[in-house]
UniProtKB/TrEMBL annotation, chain A:
A GO term, aspect molecular function: ATP binding
Membrane topology summary: Multi-pass membrane protein
Keywords, in A-Z order: ATP-binding, Membrane, Nucleotide-binding, Transmembrane, Transmembrane helix
Principal subcellular localisation of the protein: membrane
Source taxon at top rank: Bacteria
Transmembrane helix in keyword set: yes
Transmembrane segments: 20-41, 61-81, 135-157, 163-182, 244-266
Residue span(s) of domain ABC transmembrane type-1: 25-307
Domain ABC transporter: 342-577
Protein's cellular compartments: Cell membrane
Identification of the protein by name: ATP-binding cassette, subfamily B
TrEMBL record, chain B:
TM region positions: 86-109, 169-186, 192-209
Keywords: ATP-binding, Membrane, Nucleotide-binding, Transmembrane, Transmembrane helix
Start and end residues of each ABC transmembrane type-1 domain: 48-333
PROSITE patterns from the UniProt entry: ABC_TM1F, ABC_TRANSPORTER_1, ABC_TRANSPORTER_2
SMART domains linked to this entry: AAA
Start and end residues of each ABC transporter domain: 369-604
Membrane topology label: Multi-pass membrane protein
Protein name as catalogued: ABC-type multidrug transport system, ATPase and permease component
Taxonomic lineage from the root: Bacteria, Bacillati, Actinomycetota, Actinomycetes, Pseudonocardiales
Length: 587, 610
């Protein structure tokens, strides 16, 4: 087993453990105490049976009984103390680690988030962290304590009678081996079954989300067959798991019991020939029973450790991702009288690790207050270009300036307060309308929110919502139409009175009927700022003062819509409909 | 929360109601039990065998301490006198019991596991087939999220219950009952004492079941809030960063995290208190039993072996209690899941397969469609969408539907594709009521393409093949060529065999739509229905698709709903639909020159291009 890298991942948790190490150590000591108490009870039992009971003198009996009661009570209390002590630190570590990964993720660039599915990130913050919590609260401590208990118990048995010790050892060794073997096999099967459950869930999701297509083509039964085959495969894996589990249980039940049978045989022979007492025999059997859990849990605890190490490695994998877009060391200030002039100067861009340039030398000069539409075929890099302005991505060559300052020389907070952006898919959060418009900004008044809503032509429908500005929307709240969502996103863009607005085709994700209402909103929004708008349709293009055609990573043409229609064949190809063609041929 | 009346509990109606009146609650329970019954029935024989095995296993396991008692009380004294037979037999019996117990338990696990897995498989398949059978109207108002979680997380709760172990519960109950009986037969007084000391456990367990259920709900509910916030932030990362929402998000996360943490601590505390109490009661009752037992052994009224057996049984008496507690949590969530599952299974599809289907007449090319007095409303409590529609579309005609949103264009299209059934009148295909056509034949003849361009996981070719599963690669390619998809498909890393990734995430919306077209072209139906199918295409692609449409539609019957008039102009006939009625009907050129709605639309559109 390749343990080094994963163990390193576990070791890196130490800084989190440090502030709570006192409590963790005390809780470990508490478990040990409780186990020692548990192991001492059989010894007192031996004293009772061989002393007062065998000799029929009840004098010391009350003291011994009190000893049993006290030991029993201490054992139980120590269990409680352990759990109580560990609950605080383990949940605290989990919460801290989650807060830290969350904060880190918010700083990581968009390129990272494009690469990673949110499900992957979620499992690191939820299930991996709860694995780690379990490990810290449970497996980590018990791995040590159980091994100690096992050693201690065997020592007690050897002290009572070597033959009893030898027998227990002979039975315990294979059990540890079997359970370790089992855990690794079981882990493989569990992973396979998890994958199969995931695949099955995908088919279910698709069968429901694609129900219209399936009904339209009558392919429901077709998919049902595939589903049945996959479900049967999953059943096979689960049955294999069960067979393995049954084998393990067989061993766990049989080996210690056979050990007790052997103890009974040798013990009673010993009692018969006088080398052992009945009390010793009973104590031996009791200790052996007590050692069952520490013995067969070792395999499971090792597996938990392994799992925790993997979880830690997965956690650090994200935490180690580099934050590439950061505040500059010596930030510059924006000119106080800035008007929102944006320039792209020889801008180049390629994704990290790829040598194919998406943008290879883009020059655009946006005059203050002007709206420029960006047109180009799918994959021509329009969206990438827009992301460079608020630094959701950084150029790999050339520069982007706002009012003459390179965006990379500005503090991110300063830059993003003068540049606002809206996206193809309007993102709403599960919060009130007010919060969705104001987002992070704390100094936004209701009046400013309303003004922004008015500019985005959204005030009217917001007022009609059941609780107005306080209506909770988003995934957890009231659902809005695509047009309403996009208008809220536009209100959000203008609420901070930015000087520059970058819009990644806010109309494209809309169905045709709501296009018009958003277009109106857009027209009113654009009148206030310098804007760069990605456009697919003639209707959006007409909102702009000038149009830039992006082709092969460069600006192929720039000018007004009418100019470009006349001069550029590529532009006509992008923006004319079938119906325009006869007219063209005619002219 | 309002309570649910007597009738509303049927189907999925009661799902969101938290407070059910007793009657409804009982009915829901009965329904879940009935479902469990039908699932279990085929496995009844094996279930009985399993029960017998687990019974025998318990007997074998409980015999152990008894045998030890015999060894101590009879075997050893005999052995001291030189007679080892009793001792030897007891040891052999003990060994036999341990082997038997292990073997029986392993066998039982295999049997119960198989039954459980068969139940789950059966349930999964029933749910899947049923959700496919249910009509679109159901899917639309019930929402996809719920149908999915019925088939995923609810089934998971059910399997959790199987895994956490009905077997463990069974054997726990059996061993508690078995031990009680054994103790009572061994020594009545001591047994009475033991049971009396165990009495507090009854209350502790009851307290725990209630509290742990609360704690469990607290943790899962608050975990869900953390997950929602987390996923929302990750999915909206562009907006988060562009609008500097990071700090606000972090403080929200801190709040949720703290709440989750306190719930988690509560639940750990509950478990801590419970395990401590069980252990405490167990150990103290050991002391009590020892006290009385030892005195009685000392004065000769109790055998030493019996006392030993008691001490050994005590431990086993308290052990299973932990399992019962575990079981309680998964039981309550599994029951809730089963109630929802049985509700979904009870829903009947509105659009049903005919019992005695009538065949369509043999045909080449298109089929005629006829609406006679067709009336439609989506649900009884929503307004009428179509009022007595009469419309005849001859075979091979291409008809465009135009009109404002909500006028009923999509409804007409969906009725032809039989996504819904009319609430009055009929829709006929080649003279046969569409409700009498078998599903296979209907889906082979009528295909609808919508704006929603859903792709399934698999390759590009797989997705096109959905139109005609037995098509050859050449046919797939020529369908793709016809709609101008061939070039971008071959430019993908593995061409037609490229995995489209989840929901076609690898492709743009336009590309997905073109593939949806290729799929429909491959199916080559007699009737093609297009509902806003071209609206997500960019203009160059739309031109290609439109040319392809013109050639394909030449001999088919087609119904086209399009926002863009360029698409409408390829039709043989235009219908203007207003308020569920056809207000204009004619050749596009004729309508343009007229003075109606369509002419106005056309002028507005021409102006917008200039």
């Amino acid at each position: 087993m390749d343990q080094t890298p994963t163990m390193t991942a576990l070791r890196r948790l130490l800084p989190y453990l440090k502030p709570v190490r006192g409590r963790l150590i005390v809780s470990g000591v508490a478990v040990l105490c409780s186990m020692i108490c548990g192991l001492t009870i059989p010894l007192v039992l031996q004293q009772i049976l061989d002393g007062p009971v065998a000799r029929k003198e009840t004098g010391p009996l009350p003291w011994l009984i009190i000893a049993v009661a006290v030991l029993g009570a201490v054992e139980a209390l120590m269990f409680y103390v352990r759990r109580k002590l560990v609950a605080g630190p383990s949940t605290l570590i989990e919460a801290r680690m989650r807060a830290d990964i969350f904060a880190h993720l918010q700083r990581l660039p968009i390129s990272f988030h494009d690469r990673w599915q949110s499900g992957q990130l979620l499992s690191r913050a939820v299930s991996d962290l709860s694995t780690l919590r379990r490990f810290i609260a449970f497996a980590g401590i018990f791995l040590i304590v159980n091994t100690l208990t096992l050693a201690l118990g065997l020592a007690v048995l050897f002290f009572l009678a070597p033959v009893l010790g030898v027998i227990t050892l002979i039975c315990a060794a294979p059990l540890v081996f079997i359970s370790t073997q089992y855990e690794s096999k079981y882990a493989t099967l569990t992973r396979r079954s998890q994958d199969q459950v995931g695949d099955l869930a995908t088919v279910v999701e698709e069968s429901v989300l694609g129900i219209r297509v399936l009904k339209a083509f009558g392919r429901g039964p077709h998919l049902a067959k595939r589903f049945a085959a996959q479900a049967r495969e999953l059943r096979g894996t689960e049955l294999a798991k069960i067979r393995l589990l049954a084998l393990l249980w067989g061993a766990i039940i049989m080996l210690p019991e056979l050990g007790i049978a052997a103890q009974l045989l040798f013990g009673s022979l010993g009692v018969a020939n006088g080398s052992l007492t009945v009390g010793t025999l009973v104590a031996g059997v009791t200790v052996a029973t007590y050692l069952r859990w520490p013995t067969d849990s070792i395999g499971w605890l090792l597996a938990e450790t392994n799992q925790a190490a993997t979880a830690a490695a997965r956690y650090w994998e994200v935490r180690d991702a580099e934050v590439t877009i950061t505040d500059p060391l010596r930030p510059e200030e924006l000119p106080a009288d800035g008007v929102g002039a944006v320039r792209f100067e020889g801008v180049r861009f390629a994704h990290a690790g790829s040598d194919r340039e998406i943008l290879s030398g883009v020059d655009i000069d946006l005059r203050p207050g002007e709206t420029v539409a960006l047109v180009g075929s799918t994959g021509s890099g329009k969206s990438t270009l827009t992301m460079l302005v608020p630094r959701l991505a950084d150029v790999t060559g050339g520069r982007v300036t706002v009012d003459g300052v390179d965006v990379r020389d500005l503090r991110l907070a300063d830059l993003r307060s003068v540049v606002a952006m809206a996206f193809e898919e309007p993102v709403l959060f599960s919060a009130s309308v007010r919060e969705n418009v104001a987002l992070g900004a704390e100094d936004v008044t209701d009046e400013q929110v309303r003004e922004a809503l008015r500019v985005a032509q959204a005030e009217e429908f917001v007022d009609r919502l059941p609780w107005g500005l306080d209506t909770r929307i988003g995934e957890e709240g009231l659902s809005l139409s695509g047009g309403q969502r996009q208008r809220l996103a536009l209100a959000r863009a203008v609420v901070g009175k930015p000087k520059v607005l970058v819009l990644d085709d806010p109309l494209s994700a809309l169905d045709v009927h709501t296009e018009a209402e958003v277009e109106r909103a857009l027209r009113s929004v654009l009148s206030t700022v310098t804007a760069l708008v990605v456009a697919h349709r003639p209707s959006t293009v007409r909102l702009a003062d000038r149009v830039a055609l992006l082709d092969e990573g460069r600006i192929a043409a720039i000018g007004t819509h009418e100019q470009l229609l006349k001069t550029s064949a590529a532009y006509r190809d992008q923006l004319s409909t079938l119906d325009d063609e006869p007219a063209e041929v005619a002219s | 929360m309002s309570t649910v009346s007597d009738e509303q509990w049927r189907g999925v109606a009661a799902e969101d109601t938290e407070e059910l009146d007793r009657q409804v609650g009982l009915k829901l329970k009965r329904r879940s039990r009935a479902l469990l019954g039908t699932l279990l029935r085929p496995h009844l024989r094996w279930a009985v065998i399993g029960l017998v095995l687990v019974f025998l296993e318990n007997a074998a396991r409980l015999a152990g301490p008894l045998l030890i008692a015999v060894v101590i009380d009879t075997g050893i004294p005999n052995a001291i006198r030189g007679d080892t037979t009793v001792m030897a037999w007891c040891v052999v019996a003990y060994a036999f019991c341990s082997v038997a117990s292990a073997g029986l338990w392993a066998t039982f696990l295999n049997i119960s596991g198989r039954i459980g897995q068969d139940l789950v498989l059966d349930l999964r398949q029933r749910m899947f087939r049923h959700s496919q059978r249910l009509s679109l109207s159901f899917h639309e108002h019930y929402t996809s999220g719920k149908v999915i979680s019925r088939q995923t997380s609810d089934i998971d709760s059910f399997t959790d219950l199987l895994e956490v172990g009905i077997d463990d519960l069974l054997t726990s109950v059996l061993s508690i009952v078995g031990i009680t009986i054994l103790l009572l037969t061994l020594d009545l007084d001591l047994a009475a004492l033991t049971l009396a000391t165990a009495l507090p456990l009854f209350f502790v367990t009851r307290w725990f079941l209630r509290r742990s259920n609360q704690a469990y709900r607290g943790v899962s509910g608050r975990t869900a809030t953390v997950i929602v916030h987390y996923v929302e932030t990750m999915n909206g990362m562009r907006a988060v960063q562009a609008y500097r929402r990071e700090d606000r998000n972090r403080s929200i996360m801190d709040g949720l995290n703290t709440r989750l943490r306190s719930a988690a601590r509560d639940s750990l505390d509950v478990v801590a208190t419970f395990t401590m109490s069980v252990r405490m009661v167990g150990n103290l009752s050991l002391a009590v039993v020892l006290a009385f037992g030892a005195f009685r052994v000392a004065d000769g009224t109790l055998e030493l072996g019996v006392l030993t057996a008691f001490t050994l049984y005590l431990r086993r008496f308290y052990e299973p209690l932990d399992d019962i507690a575990m079981f309680a949590n998964s039981y309550s969530s599994a029951i809730a899941a089963l109630e929802k599952i049985s509700g979904l299974l009870e829903e009947e599809p509105d659009v049903r397969e005919p019992k005695q289907p009538k065949p369509l007449p043999p045909h080449r090319g298109g089929l005629p469609i006829e609406f006679t007095g067709t009336e439609f409303r989506y649900r009884p409590d929503t307004p009428i969408v179509l009022t007595s529609l009469d419309l005849t579309i001859p075979a091979g005609q291409t008809v465009a539907l135009v009109g404002p949103t909500g006028a009923g264009k999509s409804t007409i299209a969906k009725l032809v594709a039989r996504f819904y059934d009319p609430t009055g009148g009929t829709v006929q295909l080649a003279g046969v009521d569409i409700r009498d056509v078998s599903d296979v034949e209907l889906r082979g003849s009528v295909v609808m393409v919508t704006q929603e361009n859903f792709l399934f996981s698999g390759s590009v070719a797989d997705n096109i093949l959905l139109g005609k599963p037995d098509a050859t690669r050449t046919e797939v390619e020529s369908a793709a060529r016809a709609v101008g998809a061939h070039d971008f498909i071959t430019a993908l890393p593995q061409g037609y065999d490229t995995d489209v990734r989840k929901r076609g995430g690898r492709l743009s919306a336009g590309q997905r739509q073109v593939i949806a077209f290729a799929r429909a072209f491959l199916a080559n139906p007699a009737v093609l229905v297009l509902d806003e199918a071209t609206s997500s295409l960019d203009l160059p692609t739309e031109r290609v698709v439109q040319r392809a449409l013109e050639s394909v539609l030449a001999d088919r019957t087609a119904l086209i709903i399009a926002h863009r008039l360029s698409t409408v102009l390829i039709a043989d006939r235009v219908l203007v639909v207003t308020n569920g009625q056809i207000t204009e009907d004619g050749h596009p050129q004729d309508l343009i020159t007229g003075e109606g709605h369509f002419a106005a639309l056309h002028t507005a559109w021409r102006d917008s291009l200039a």
